[in-house]
Known about the structure:
Oligomer: single chain
Strand order of the largest sheet: 1-4
Distance between the termini: 26 Å
Radius of gyration: 22 Å
Structural class: alpha+beta
Helix content: 10-25%
Largest sheet: 2 strands, parallel
Number of strands: 4
Order of helices and strands: EHEEEH
Amino acid sequence: xxxxxxxxxxxxxxxxxxxxxxxxxxxxxxxxxxxxxxxxxxxxxxxxxxxxxxxxxxxxxxxxxxxxxxxxxxxxxxxxxxxxxxxxxxxxxxxxxxxxxxxxxxxxxxxxxxxxxxxxxxxxxxx
Length: 127
């Protein structure tokens, strides 16, 4: 059974908060302001021993091997880099051209805020 959520944004405050909600949701799900999906980020480069080549806390990477505390367990392995099942279809409708359109109803008696979101804002092509 498909699960879909439709947001209802009512009034000036509801539409302003709703606009910020959709911005955050786009960032979390990798959707550009025009509704097209972003390319997945490249996997991080790791050494053969599983440690990252990026130094921590801005310091230089040294060849020293730090001994763990007696009886300490080794750190857990890094998470797999396989694609995660991202359920964009819960909040977005995927159009025939591959764009994601928010499932949202924007309601206001004063059209200024809605027009700002849908006509002149940075996410105008999303709606």
